[in-house]
Amino acid sequence: MRTDMLEGALKAYRKDADGPLAERLRFLEGLSAIQSEIQSAERAYALTGPETAREALVTGQPLFLSAPPVLPSGEFVAAVQRVAAYVAEEAGLDEPQAAALREADFAGALTEDRLEHAARSTDVFVAEVAEALGASEGADLKPVTVAYVLISALVPVFSAGAVSALEAVGGVDKKAWTLGMCPVCGSPATIGLTGEGTKLHGAERTLWCGLCHTEWEYDRLRCVRCGNRDTSKLRYTYIEGDPAHRLHLCDVCHGYARFVFADELGIPVSLAVEDAVMAELDAVARSQGYTPAGDPESTD
Question: Any residues with CB less than 8 A from the CB of 228 and at least 6 apart, and which?
Fold first, then answer.
């Protein structure tokens, strides 16, 4: 996690931010401080067989699938409990929801078996823990809240492992990895970056994973969700007055991805901060009938 870039971006945005955006940035600043302390703990991570891993990338297998980072039970439970306490106090939950989160038995739900498979299938891991905690839409403890806490605690562990994994394979070759999901942890790309501000090998467009903070090159004229290359079915749109933050919409799968246009931004770029800044674009996309993952059944 690049705390220097994050702090620079937060400082720039705070000058004019108010209302919901100011609250999101304040919350992010506190959460990032906790994540940085979690990440500072020394953890061994080794990607066994770098050559085999490079070959796996060519076939679309993310690095963590074959060599997931280890989550020591006691250490990770403590991290989750710390994040949960922060979310309960600072995320604006109503009191019954905040109380339910404070009382959640994460120590009991985060079993060794579940932790062992967290990196290989994060969605399944999150769903199993939420179920073990009794989270449901009709209860005070919501699945979405549990998911947010768990993912926030995983970020510092996964991002540290991602750095080691990428060093072991010498980075990700654009020709070897052509997917819109992360080459390290396999999560769908969270946001993208385009323009001269893109620092990765001079690429015109890169994608960024919010789970392990990996950034990788991606074709400029291609849907992030379904891979469609028909430019007549692809377009960018943005909220009037803010061309730096855009939606890339695909009329084949009806999916979308959020992009930062660095040349239009004019301030330091931290993709973790931009993720929070662009939250309102999700509602814009959904109002037009587009979804984050798109509809695979609508593609050929």
Answer: 222, 234, 250, 252, 253, 299
As given in the structure block, the two tokens for residue 64 are 């963590």
Rounded distance between C-alpha atoms, residue 202 and residue 169, angstroms? 20
| Residue 142, Ramachandran bin (φ over 0: left; ψ between -120 and 50: alpha; else beta) | beta
Q: Give CB contacts under 8 A, 24+ apart, made by 121-130.
A: 122/151, 122/154, 122/185, 122/187, 122/211, 125/150, 126/150, 126/151
109, 110, 112, 113 alpha-carbon torsion, rounded to 10°: 70
Question: What tens digit of pLDDT does each residue of 18-50 get?
Answer: 999 999 999 999 999 999 999 888 777 888 788
Structure tokens at 118: 């967290």
Q: What are the helix (H) ranges across the chain? A: 3-14, 19-39, 50-58, 63-66, 73-90, 95-103, 106-109, 112-116, 122-132, 143-169, 262-265, 271-277, 279-287
d(CA 243, CA 105): 44
pTM of the full predicted structure? 0.93
Residue of 186 and 47 predicted with greater confidence: 186
The token pair at 265 is: 């931004």
CA gyration radius for the chain? 19
What is the dihedral angle through the alpha carbons of 198, 202, 203, 208, rounded to the nearest 10 degrees?
-40
Interval 100-136: pLDDT, tens: 999 999 999 999 999 988 998 999 999 999 999 999 9
